[in-house]
Every structure is written in C-alpha cells, then in structure tokens.
Design goal:
- The chain has about 425 residues and is an alpha/beta fold.
- The protein contains 9 helices and 24 strands.
- It has helices spanning about 50-55, 55-70, 115-120, 185-190, 220-225, 250-265, 285-295, 370-390, 395-405; strands at about 15, 30-40, 75-80, 80, 85, 95-105, 105-115, 130-135, 135-140, 175-180, 200, 210-215, 235-240, 250, 275, 280, 300-305, 315, 325-330, 350, 355-360, 365, 405, 420.
- The strands form 7 sheets. It has a 7-stranded parallel sheet, with helices on both faces. It has a 5-stranded mixed sheet with strand order 3-6-7-2-8.
- A hairpin with a 5-residue loop joins strand 21 (about 355-360) and strand 22 (about 365).
- Helix 5 runs parallel beside helix 8 (about 370-390) and helix 6 packs parallel to helix 7.
- About 50% of the residues are buried.
- The model is unreliable at about 1-10, about 80-95, about 145-170 and about 230 (pLDDT under 50).
- This is 17701_t:CDS:1.
Length: about 425
C-alpha cells in the first residue's frame, strides 16, 4: 500500500543579507560592472603544463595577483565571511573593488567595475579567463498580472490532530495528519482528484536538513517549504536576501548568496543542503555555472521556471541549468498555469497558482508564480533526505521525476507532463 506523505517542518529562519550597492550598467565614467569566470584546472583549453601543475584556486589567485598589479588600488573583498556578509560601498574613484565567489573546487569568479575597452582588449584575451559578461538583472519569478483581489485565498495553514498510530501495522503509524489544508498541500499527497482536504506526512518531517531560500526575503517561500508548526524540530530554513525590496537585483548578488551557501555547506557536519532559487533572469552562463558548482559539492538546487506566459524556460537562468530541478506552475484543476514558462528544461510542475502561505506580521497571503511552485520541490527533497537518506543531486532529480504523477496535466504537451508527488518514503 502506498504511503502518502508531504512536508511538514518547523521553520527556523535565519535571515542573511547579501545585497550590496552594485549598480548594473555604466558608471558615470563609462565603466561597467562585469562578472569574470576563471577556467577550471580541468578545462582542456589550458596549456597542459598549467592543467597538470595548477588547481583552479591557484589559477584564480595568480589572476587576482595580476589584476592587483595593474590596478594598484584594487581592493579584494571576499563576498561573505563565516559570520555573514561583508558590505562594500560604491567606489567613486578610479579604483576597483573585486568581489570574489568560490563554490567547490572548480568554480572561481569575481565581479568588478572595469572600462569596457580594458575588458575587450586585455581581460578577455587572458588564457585563464573562461568568459567575461556584464552583470545582469534578476527578479523574483512571481506573477502579479491578471489577479483579482477576490481571487486571493485568505486561509490559515491550520494544523489538524496528530494521529499517534496505536498499532505499528497501521499504515499511518508515525504519520502526522493535517486537515482543512490549502489546495496546494492537499494536492501533494494524492495521485488524482478530487481533493480529500488533508495531507499526511511523517511526524519527523525533514529532520536535519538545511533549506536555503535565496530571494527578496523569502517569508512566503519559506512558509511553503516549512510551514510554521509548534512541536516539530525538523528542517532549518535559512532566508538569504539577495534581491531588493522590489524583487529585483543583480546576478552578482545572487551568486554571492550561492557562494555563501557553499561555504556553509562545506563546514556543515551533516551536509544535507537544499537551495531554492525562486527568481529568474535572461540566460546567464555564470548563474548556470554556479548552480552546477553547487550540485557538484552535493547541494540540491530547485529553481523557478519563470513567468513569461508559455515562453521557453531554456531561454532563462537559472531555469536552463541542466543540474537544477526546474519547476513550472500548476493550478487547482491540474492545468498548467498560463503564466508559467514551459519547454524541455522544465523537469516537473507543482502548485503555483493562488498559493496561500505565511506573510509579514503573522499574516497569510495568496500569491501566484513559479516562485511559489519551486519551494514545493525543495520541501519534498528535504523530506526524502530525512526519510530515505541523502543522495547525489542528479539521483535526487531522477527520484523526484520518477515519483511524479505522469500525464495528468492539461495542456502539458510542450513540457514533461509530470506533477510533483510523494510516494513510499517508508
């Protein structure tokens, strides 16, 4: 008999602010802000002697020494220290501030403001440079168009009674039953409609898993991942603020957040980490490279497909990253949301339309977007890790897709027709 279960967490939110005062575009003197990615020591384009004798980090350090020598006033800033972010102010002089990013052994990059001619004629010609791109804008993948106030669902995530399971042979032994739940939670624990107005999850929740929410603040998203409870000490949700109050920011700030997560994961004894990126921007190679670097060190990454009304998710980042689990949005009647991006890069769909979750000042709010869909997958991954043990991100991606309900979504011909589902975790 299938055991139906979904996520239930105690949220311990630690807010980390990543944002610095980075200006995207040209400065007053014509300089632009760039992200520079260094070749990995494994890159076949490097001279054989370099590839054999150098690590990626040593290649990077040599490059930084060169930059420092030609810019005598360069200031090197490690984007985050062990205790949180380091802040840098806008630099009004001709000096440069170099902001470093390191994820795993093979991703080294930095951002800085340079003269475009220096970038084209000198920097890009260096052998150790993989590529240099202008910093770009990124924004929350939340749909705000076409929604009426009367369509907003105002309901609390009420807790039901806990079934302690008096008999061990009872299929619900050790499970937690919640009733009168919002539709998005209800949908996770059953293959087919109609809704049964409850969901069932292991009483232990996603124990000893860290879920990082890289977002504007992440209250709503964190609520979807964790849903505040009173008596389950399970998943720790860490909100990493990388975007501004308006929901926009720069890729350099987002990658700084990812770099900080990598450092936390490296020093974690349990190394059970999930990153949710409920944001989107135009196709941006450094962002996809950073996602790959995270998965290479064992961090699971879930991302929003984006909200461009049927656009191809492969044209955006991080949704185009092959290593991420890219999530599209579905509605209450199992229709792919009109605003959701689709295409071959979408791995699975999850509830993302009119999703009610916690909000500021102890309130609740209903929002729509693939930003709401992606954290459902992050929560499911946390539960799988807690119940089945951790596994490489590629294997987890396969497991999520294998568990999903196939062929049930309406208008699903342009994407893999898979709806998020949890099954047989005991």
């Amino acid at each position: 008999m299938f055991i139906k279960c979904v996520i239930h967490f105690f949220i311990s939110i630690l807010l980390i602010t990543i944002i610095e005062s980075t200006i995207i575009g040209k400065s007053s003197d014509g300089r632009k802000h760039y992200i520079v990615v260094i070749k990995s020591a494994q890159n076949s384009d490097l001279e054989p002697t370099v590839a054999i004798t150098k690590t990626t980090d040593s290649i990077y350090q040599d490059h930084i020494s060169w930059i420092s020598n030609i810019h005598s006033q360069a200031t090197i800033v490690t984007s985050l220290d062990e205790n949180g972010p380091l802040y840098t102010a806008n630099n009004s002089s001709g000096d440069i501030i170099i902001r470093e990013y390191a994820i795993g052994d093979n991703f080294r990059a930095y951002s800085a403001t340079f003269d475009p001619q220096f970038v084209e004629n000198i920097l890009k010609q260096r052998e150790e440079i993989d590529y240099v791109v202008p910093d770009s804008e990124v924004w929350v993948a939340r749909n705000t168009m076409g929604l009426n106030e009367e369509d907003m669902i105002e309901e609390y995530l009420a807790l039901g009674d806990y079934d302690k399971g008096a008999k061990s042979q009872d299929p619900l032994f050790g499970m937690r039953i919640q009733t009168n739940v919002p539709w998005n939670l209800d949908r996770l624990d059953q293959r087919f409609l109609p809704y049964d107005n409850r969901y069932i999850s292991p009483a232990t929740g996603g124990r000893r898993v860290d879920v990082y929410v890289i977002d504007t603040h992440g209250t709503h998203v964190a609520g979807i991942v964790g849903k505040i409870t009173e008596n389950i000490d399970a998943t720790r949700v860490i909100a990493v603020k990388a975007l501004g109050k308006t929901g926009t920011g720069s890729w350099s700030d987002v990658i700084a957040g990812m770099s900080w997560v990598a450092k936390r994961h490296k020093h974690s004894k349990r190394k059970r980490s999930v990153v949710n990126l409920s944001l989107t921007g135009k196709y941006f190679p450094p962002a996809n490279a950073a996602v790959k670097a995270l998965t290479d060190i064992g961090v699971h990454v879930t991302v929003a497909a984006g909200n461009y009304y049927g656009a191809n998710a492969c044209f955006f980042s991080p949704s185009s990253s092959p290593e991420a689990i890219t999530t599209g949005s579905s509605s209450i009647d199992d229709t792919i949301s009109k605003f959701s991006n689709v295409g071959a890069c979408v791995d699975v769909f999850a509830p993302g339309q009119n999703v009610t979750s916690v909000w500021l000042r102890n309130g609740t709010k209903s929002l729509s977007g693939t930003s709401m869909a992606s954290p459902h997958v992050a929560g499911v991954i946390a539960l799988v890790i807690a119940q089945c043990g951790n596994m490489p991100p590629a294997r987890m991606k396969t497991k999520i897709r294998d568990m999903a309900t196939r062929g049930i979504l309406k208008d699903g011909s342009l994407s893999s027709n898979l709806l998020l589902f949890l099954d047989r975790l005991r």
